[in-house]
Design brief:
This protein has 4 helices and 2 strands, in the order H-H-H-H-E-E. It is of the alpha+beta class.
Amino acid sequence: MIEELGKADASTGWVVNQLAIYGTYASRMPRKIAKKIWIDTPHGCVANTPAATATAVVVPGGYRVTGPARDSAPAHGTPRGSPRTRR
């Protein structure tokens, strides 16, 4: 199914694939934590990175993330000014 979505629209296929892998992540963590992320939080959203190099700190209203935070997108598809394209 994801391949067919990707044929119609590559970005849609990529997003659906990224969202689908979170079931695998959830199955590898304690049930209580998975429930807190995906069930107790309405419209929860999770991001991943191939190498966690930034630090997230809880602040009023959310989190502050500092340090280099690379994404897993190819360099040619990365917005100008992101850590991957900054020189």
